[in-house]
Amino acid sequence: MTSYPEFIPKAGACLVSKNALSRAGRVRWMVRVPSQAPVDNGWRIFSHIDSQEYLADTSNLQMTDFNAVCALEPALIGIYDFPVGSDLQIVDEGQGIRIVETATGREIPRENFYVPPTMRADG
C-alpha cells in the first residue's frame, strides 16, 4: 500500500490494527477518541478478526495515514468528521455496506456522512 488517493485533504493519521492493514481481516469497528498528537485524528480502526488479546499487544497496531485506510475501506470516508466518542461498525449482510452505532445498532443515515470537497455538488 504505497500509493493511494488523497480522498480527504489533511485527514491526519489514525491507529489501525495490522489485521485490517494487511487485509487479513475486514475493517469492522471504528472508534473516535481524543487526539493524542497533532497529526492524530483520533480514529481507531479495527478488523472483524481482532480479539481483545490481539489488541492488548500494541505491536499489533500502527499509526497510518487516514487516506490509506480509506483506500482499503472506502466507507471510512463518510465517517471522517464524526465527533469524538463515536463508536461505529460496518455491517455487511449481503445487501450492501451499512454503518451503524455499535451501542444501539442504529443505522447512520447517508445524509450524515462526510463528503470530500472534490465530490461535493457545490465544489
Descriptive overview:
- It is a single chain.
- The chain is an alpha+beta fold.
- It has one domain (13-116).
- It contains three helices and six strands, in the order E-H-E-E-H-E-H-E-E.
- The protein has helices spanning 18-21, 52-56, 66-72, and strands at 13-17, 27-32, 40-47, 61-65, 87-92, 97-101.
- The protein has a six-stranded mixed beta sheet with strand order 4-1-3-2-5-6.
- A hairpin with a 4-residue loop joins strand 5 and strand 6.
- The N and C termini lie far apart (29 Å).
How would you concisely characterize the structure shown here?
The chain is 13% helix and 28% strand. By secondary structure, the chain is of the alpha+beta class. The protein has one domain.
What labels describe this entry?
123 residues; 28% strand; alpha+beta; 6-stranded mixed sheet
Q: Specify the helix fraction band.
A: 10-25%
How many β strands by DSSP? 6
Point out poorly predicted stretches.
Answer: none
Distance between the termini: 29 Å
| Structural class designation | alpha+beta
Shape: globular
Order of H and E elements: EHEEHEHEE
Structural domain count: 1
Radius of gyration: 14 Å
Question: In what range is the share of β-strand residues?
Answer: 25-35%
Number of helices: 3
Largest sheet: 6 strands, mixed
Mean residue pLDDT: 93
Strands ordered across the widest β-sheet: 4-1-3-2-5-6
